User: Fold this.
Amino acid sequence: MYMRTGLWAAGLGLAVAIAAVPAGAQTPNRGGTLTYMIPADAPPSFDGHRETTYATVHVGAPFYSVLIRVPPDNPASTTEFVCDLCTEMPKPTDGGKTYTFKIRQDVKFHDGAKLTAQDVATSWNYIVFPPKGVSSARVSFYEMVDKIEAPDDATVIFRLKRPTTAFLPALADPYTWIYKKETLEKDPHWYEKNILGSGPFKFVAYEVGQSIKGARNPDYYHKGQPYLDAIEGIFADKQSVRVEALRGDRAAIEFRGLPPSARDQLVKEAGKDIVVQDSDWNCGNILTPNHKKKPFDDVRVRRALALAIDQWAGAPALAKIANVRTVGGIVFPGSPLAATKEELQQIAGFWPDIEKSRAEAKRLLKEAGAEGLKFELLNRNVDQPYKYVGTWAVAEWKKIGLNVEQKVVPTGPWFSNMRAGTFDVAMEANCQSVVNPVLDTGKYLPHTVYPENYGGYEDQKSIDLYEKMQIETDLAAQRAAMRAYEKHTLDTMTHEIVLPYWYRIVLARSYVKGWKISPSHYLNQDLANIWLDK
Amino acid sequence: MYRYIVTRLLLAIPTLAGAAALVFVLMRLIPGDVCVIRLGAGGSHVDPASLAACRQQLGLDDPMIVQFLHFLWSYATFDFGISMWSGNPVTHEIAIRLPVSLEVAVLATVIAILIAIPLGTISALKENTWLDHFVRVVAIAGIATPSFWLGIMSLVLVLDITFLATGHAWRPPITFVSFWQDPLGNLAIVFLPAITVGYRYSAVTMRLTRSAMLEVLREDYIRTARAKGLLEQIIVNRHALKNALLPVVTLIGIEFAFLIGGLVVTEQVFNLNGIGRLLVQAVQNQDNVLAQALVMLVVAVFVFANLVVDVLYAWLDPRIRYS
Assistant:
């Protein structure tokens, strides 16, 4: 059922095993209500521009439109983007620095007002250049944007400071909802507590911590969609409640992802009534040694930590109990910029011969005077997969004589310790939405360039290699530059240790059709193409 | 009596202020803050400018003493603040959840009283008989059984029984409806949690009722009543039970107050959107304003419940007079 070997061919895309009958083989039924579980208590607000949690996307995406997006019928693609509000994907002009989008003229907000390019440009200006007092969580994604204009009601122009392959994926971010210009300018905080979009569903009701309801938008511009009459998202933070709801058919799907144990249990009990879609996830855990603390300032010690971990044997074993599966480098395995298996095996921590790798680790520790080193692994109090992966890493380090204690703390203290540099080695996570290797790998830059790197190192060469890769627009050349940056980060300097990528397992009742899994729980959540076969 | 009640209410003010200071300090001892969790918990990039703006907006940049004085002043003026997580007034957040917790707490208390007092009394009257042993086993099992396990097992049991009986497994609804909207739907949701909580609650109360009854039944005035030839039923109901209930009432009062904010696990298991779950979320999200308000609510309920218990003492035992 699971493909592994094929993942290593660049550009192959994701390994997606779909137990359901392909949606294209059937004519979608119209009508019905989709009840889905939202694994959260409530989103902090409804404002996609401001929030980062998936709870906001799972709640709000069905009500909003975006400019471009990953293709709903092929969301596993890491390189393909399609229009939502635009009429066709533009060819960049001005040496790759100008993107001109033509906006559909048949789009209405749910209050009946016409959506124009002015609304699109204003929303984007608030995302990229938020005025004082307005919070935008993704400003740094659009550092390449110089200006956003709407010369008329049908045209939006993005002018960039420089050409970059990172722009289009960033533009397809699922949180970049298009708000009404008039409302936004009157009160930019209005969308935090209210919903008014132009998406496939109209907002009906919201009960804090209970549910959100929507009804079909009859004026939706993608003709024929949505297929459903209504949607109802039910909040349940507790996994057992969500699994029980799926088992009892009181909810049809949970979009974020459940662990292998839940999959095995439900498939065993419900048989063909439950279908499984799974995919590599654009999220992964990273081990970050604190370079400001001895002996982790010594590259030999950091390298030994990487060499001790048997990723190739560990990943499939862990996959049986935790939401992880595929071994990868700094780039998401499904991307054309990702390392092949052969390339990875040249990097410390990915050597195919684990005995040789651990012998080298022991030699390095002895040379660095760090034999039998005792230290603490700072981890987050989240089961899947943080604690599973952390426990595995501790066991692997023990095999080279290291004595590691895992310190598991809640999210607040976890962040606080990392930010304050009060840790030896930290279990971090890098979790992104649209696969955008150029932006996603910024995580491995020094703190002075990328404030959310907690390793505490300065490394000009790392910055230079990243810059070279970032400005490259030729795929082959960019891929080569990415390999150099990766080799430097994971092997030469071993600034970070990348652990197996997370694996997304989505369970649904078998009558749920049309929805396809993507490498991110943030993507493809407008639910317009879902229909019920019952 | 009225003077006593007013004095007790006035004395509650320093108690509440002390609790307020304690919860204020404790919440701030937790490393991190709501902005970091809000913007970075998903593992994605946290924009430093957004972080700074968030902290400024929520007043987290202010010196601690300024935050504390602001907190005290807002409570003195009955302004309980805005949730740092949702941006809604905390009174609104609490008002949504309080009816759920209150309903479960009241129902659990009723169930506990209906089980505990008769069984505790019978157990004492039939001391060291098989009936006494059986009641004590039931009580000890109730104390020893974790409520999350009992909650899950009660669900499984209901599923299995209804499946065997009807061929279709009955499951309680997963979204809450109020009693006034749909009485049967509401009871279907709250009945199992109330039984789960009520059983544990009754077990503790049952043990106390038994030991209090045993003590009272050995008192001279009971012996005198028996010597006078009073009916056993009158001795038990009018003389023994009423006196034995004094510590039991105290326990019921404290347990009820605890249930308002302490149903954390039960609310999780049954997906109830109550005060306990909200408190856990508030602490997890480091929403200091909401967590403080919830702790203060629980403190206020405890203070009020203790007052009610003290007033009940006077009703149960006419010898008790407050001045």
